Amino acid sequence: xxxxxxxxxxxxxxxxxxxxxxxxxxxxxxxxxxxxxxxxxxxxxxxxxxxxxxxxxxxxxxxxxxxxxxxxxxxxxxxxxxxxxxxxxxxxxxxxxxxxxxxxxxxxxxxxxxxxxxxxxxxxxxxxxxxxxxxxxxxxxxxxxxxxxxxxxxxxxxxxxxxxxxxxxxxxxxxxxxxxxxxxxxxxxxxxxxxxxxxxxxxxxxxxxxxxxxxxxxxxxxxxxxxxxxxxxxxxxxxxxxxxxxxxxxxxxxxxxxxxxxxxxxxxxxxxxxxxxxxxxxxxxxxxxxxxxxxxxxxxxxxxxxxxxxxxxxxxxxxxxxxxxxxxxxx
Length: 331
Prior knowledge:
With 331 residues, the chain is an alpha/beta fold. The strands form 3 sheets. Strands 1, 2, 3, 4, 5, 6, 7, 12, 13 and 14 form a 10-stranded mixed β-sheet that branches. It has a two-stranded antiparallel sheet with strand order 8-9. It has 10 helices and 14 strands. It is globular, with a radius of gyration of 19 Å. The longest helix is centred in the last third of the chain and has 28 residues, at 276-303.
């Protein structure tokens, strides 16, 4: 299978200097691309001068993660895309176990490796960890990471399992499945768009796996830090949009009502913590959600599905009330 490793870049010369060498060194069986989102720094010049084997894709605008990748992938011919964040260090033979699984399992449309923390390499990393799921109210969570509790890697997730979503930090996806599902939704701009994509691919009969025999190290937040209110805005808004778009039937409205209430409680908690900007980010997320609501109702007519997307548990209840902070405690 032909493989394209595509790194989306926006003013990330420093990240490329640090992380591109490992990608080039350990991706000898793939074509490596840097897709530049109209950077104003010397990113492209750096790659051109120092890594002549890396191909440059020049996007005309900074359309965020979703549009950036849609534009970058549009003209690639490889059978497998690997959407790789610019702050990821890959390891020797990282591609082989995943590509082997695609060859073995013809129903496989997307996958992710084990995602470990670059700055604390014995722990999982927040964005994806050991494979993603969604709870009864649409909250994403991972093996190895429940909310802000991160597990150490003790080889407990060195397996290969079916998951609901694979992280956009290192997303392997079949070209045909990607485009048949409509690609990434550009209205998301950034955050949650990979979960939305995975949802649509699953609804079309594909399968998604976590491949624990491959591992990479992710900095996380290098482009948009976890403490940035913009991250709060996109996470809260985009989860609501994703639910409206994909959940079929009247149960959606009960879920949205509960989510709005819980979002309000989160906003109050941020206030008590002195994180006023994050409280306003949630408010603005809701306002933006209302602004996009009717547009997403139209998308709902196309994409909403009865696909059994969620577990029956509530991660909010388990984590905050029952104090279950480890995946194996009841998730």
